[in-house]
Amino acid sequence: MMDWKIVAGVGCASLAAAGAGYLVYRLGQKSARSDQRFPGIDKTYATDDPINLYIIDHTTINPVLMKLHKLSTSHSKGLMTTAIEQDTFLTLLTKSVNAKKVIDIGMFFGCSAMALALGLPDGGKVVGLEINSEYIENGKPFFAEAGISDKIDIRIKDAEEGLSEMIKDGESGTYDIAFLDAFKQRYPFYLEPVHTLLRPGGLFVIDNALFHGRVIDPQVDDDSTRGVRRLNNMLKNDRRFEIVLLKVADGILIARKL
Ligand SMILES: C[S@@+](CC[C@H](N)C(=O)[O-])C[C@H]1O[C@@H](n2cnc3c(N)ncnc32)[C@H](O)[C@@H]1O
């Protein structure tokens, strides 16, 4: 029988090797927003926690999405990028509910949109709402490389306006998932239009639901934190949904429309 110390040593060495590439691009990206009072609430690329390497090493990551993720996190506003294991989670969630129609609210370089699209069958569609066309231009070559360009319908406009148009176009009750990751101040205002657009059983998936721990800090009362807190509380008291708040990345709240 092998000595457990040798086994552990070999395991750690292979983990270190597997994680090395990831670390190389992640180093120097430490989150300015991460709050040390709330350890464990942050994105995997934003902390030095070795458990992050283990997470990445045990997650299926699409290689084209990984390339886009590296580009996105290297931007001066790269800390807005979703965590890579969170993207894989979105792909699996999309596949698990057999989603065909999905909304991505706040695209940045397009990691979450690509992750959602990777989970869709032929003919499936992600409607992506983004106010800044410069950001999402960066994602387009990667969508093409992954063969999913035809699944991502990019709409350059304010997301609230985009959702209202979708309702006016008669799309109420037809979407399987809506992923929210736009600016936090307006989070509460997405609840009604998203509820209208989701089908019964559809999922409202909300990023940054813990907002670096600020949601429970009584001394923090900025507009963004207030926005996240308010939407969390609205959903907690909303009988039209059942909800779970996961301590994954910066917090993911999943609300299932009843
Ligand atoms: C946190 S980033 C999104 C990250 C992205 N989901 C990803 O996978 O990396 C937020 C994005 O939302 C966009 N945004 C913020 N408010 C918006 C609004 N009202 N309408 C449309 N886009 C908005 C910003 O321009 C920014 O690109």
Structure summary:
With 258 residues, this protein is of the alpha/beta class.
What's the layout of helices and strands?
Blueprint: H1 4-26, H2 50-57, H3 63-74, H4 84-96, E1 101-105, H5 111-118, E2 125-130, H6 133-137, H7 140-145, E3 152-156, H8 159-168, E4 175-180, H9 191-197, E5 198-207, H10 223-236, E6 241-246, E7 252-257
Parallel strand pairs: 1-2, 1-4, 2-3, 4-5
Antiparallel strand pairs: 5-7, 6-7
Helix pairs in contact: 1-2, 4-5, 8-9
The chain binds S-adenosylmethionine.
Report the principal-axis shape: globular
Share of residues in helices: 40-55%
Roughly what fraction of the amino acids lie in strands? Answer: 15-25%
Number of domains: 1
Describe the protein's architecture and organization:
- The model is unreliable at 1-18 (pLDDT under 50).
- The longest helix is centred in the first third of the chain and has 23 residues, at 4-26.
- Helix 9 links the parallel strand 4 (175-180) and strand 5.
- A seven-stranded mixed sheet has the order 3-2-1-4-5-7-6, sandwiched between helices.
- The protein contains ten helices and seven strands.
- The radius of gyration is 19 Å and the shape is globular.
- The chain has a single domain (63-257), classed as Vaccinia Virus protein VP39 (Rossmann fold, 3-Layer(aba) Sandwich), CATH 3.40.50.
- With 258 residues, it is an alpha/beta fold.
- It binds S-adenosylmethionine.
- S-adenosylmethionine (SAM) is lined by residues 72, 80-82, 106-109, 111-112, 129-132, 135, 158-159, 181-183, 186.
- S-adenosylmethionine is lined by residues 72, 80-82, 106-109, 111-112, 129-132, 135, 158-159, 181-183, 186.
